[in-house]
Write a structure and sequence with these properties.
CATH superfamily of the largest domain: Rieske [2Fe-2S] iron-sulphur domain
Mean pLDDT: 89
Helix content: 25-40%
Number of strands: 9
Strand content: 15-25%
Number of helices: 4
Strand order of the largest sheet: 1-9-8
Low-confidence stretches: none
Length: 178
């Protein structure tokens, strides 16, 4: 039959279609890669993803503040009285019910993000000279939110407890946050 390609021509045409499609796919992938890669986190963000904190210099009853992801993190070495006070609270009376044991990995160490859950202020209470509110915890002077010694909201407009970040004890004196 005239006008029909021979078997060799069909094979060559099929090969050219497949090769052209493969090259177009590879070219598209190479062209799109920079756009996909730019969505990855920057090196400065990855560097802040986790931090290690040495707790050995924090005496009982004292607190430190570290920066993690641009936010203050409050770390408090709680006294036995603070632990007992936090554990005896009736969770059913809390606005954001959460037992003290759900907020700490070791009762003597409280680790939480120091940002008020109302409008993002930084509560006072890290220093001995700061006002601690009625519940001997943290006090946000902007709108009067008061947190207890476990960082739970007890009074004021804040809707939730202070956030507990993901953290793990590396050894007895060091934690990794993030």
């Amino acid at each position: 039959m005239a006008g029909e390609p021979s078997g060799a021509d069909k094979n060559r045409r099929d090969f050219l279609y497949i090769a052209t499609g493969a090259m177009a796919t590879a070219g598209t992938a190479v062209a799109l890669w920079p756009f996909i890669h730019q969505m990855n986190p920057a090196a400065d963000v990855l560097a802040l993803a986790s931090i290690e904190v040495d707790l050995s210099g924090v005496p009982v009853g004292q607190a430190i503040t570290v920066r993690w992801r641009g936010k203050p993190v409050f770390i408090r070495h709680r006294t036995p009285d603070e632990i007992a006070e936090a554990q005896k609270v009736d969770v059913g009376t809390l606005r954001d019910p959460q037992a003290d044991s759900a907020r700490v990995q070791k009762p003597e160490w409280l680790v939480m993000v120091g940002v008020c859950t109302h409008l993002g202020c930084i509560p006072l209470g890290q220093k001995d000279t700061d006002p601690h509110g009625e519940f001997d915890g943290w006090f946000c002077p902007c709108h009067g939110s008061q947190y207890d010694s476990s960082g739970r909201i007890r009074k004021g407009p804040a809707p939730q407890n202070l956030e507990v970040p993901q953290y793990a004890f590396i050894d007895a004196n060091r934690i990794r946050i993030g």
